[in-house]
Amino acid sequence: MSDLRDLYQEVILDHSKHPRHFQALEHADRSADGYNPLCGDKITVFLRTKDGRIEEAAFQGSGCAISMAAASLMTLAIRGSTTEELEETFRAFHDMVTGQVDDEDRVSARLGKLIVFAGVCKFPVRVKCATLAWHTARAAMAQRPEPVSTE
Fold it and tell me: pLDDT tens digits for 55-101?
């Protein structure tokens, strides 16, 4: 179990130090800003959609390692998703990081690499860090103009 936990930590550290899709997305048709006042994380999520699907996802911002890694892995996970699929993945991710998993097989199948955040449930103060990008992506998809706050 310790080896698996170490691997998860390595993945999180890699994505926080070298985030994927860390850029303003050219020709984005949706975006939203998010803020976690508890940790100071600030993020902007950019989406380019076509025919109801997320074609591209990117983000910019600053924050703790959990926040940046979660945003990086999220951009990889939501590409190709519909609004409904984004919601399903968000719900599975949220259930996992809050320790409210009722069906581990469903969550594992839905989350793929996002499972590296399973340990966040042991640190409740980090849940908002891990979910900020997700809340912001949902706001962008829904085209909500007001900034997202985790408070």
Answer: 999 999 999 999 999 999 999 999 999 999 999 999 999 999 998 87
Task: Please tell me the distance from the alpha carbon of residue 100 to that of residue 24, in angstroms, as a whole number.
Answer: 34
CATH architecture of the domain formed by 2-145? Alpha-Beta Complex (3.90)
Strand partners, 76: none
CA 149 to chain centre: 14
Q: Domain map of the chain by residue range? A: 2-145
In sequence order, the 6+-apart residues with CB closer than 8 A to the CB of 96 are: 107, 111, 114, 115, 117, 118, 120, 121
Asked whether 6 and 20 are in contact (CB, 8 A), the reply is: no
User: What backbone phi and psi angles, to 5 degrees, belong to 147?
Assistant: -60, 150
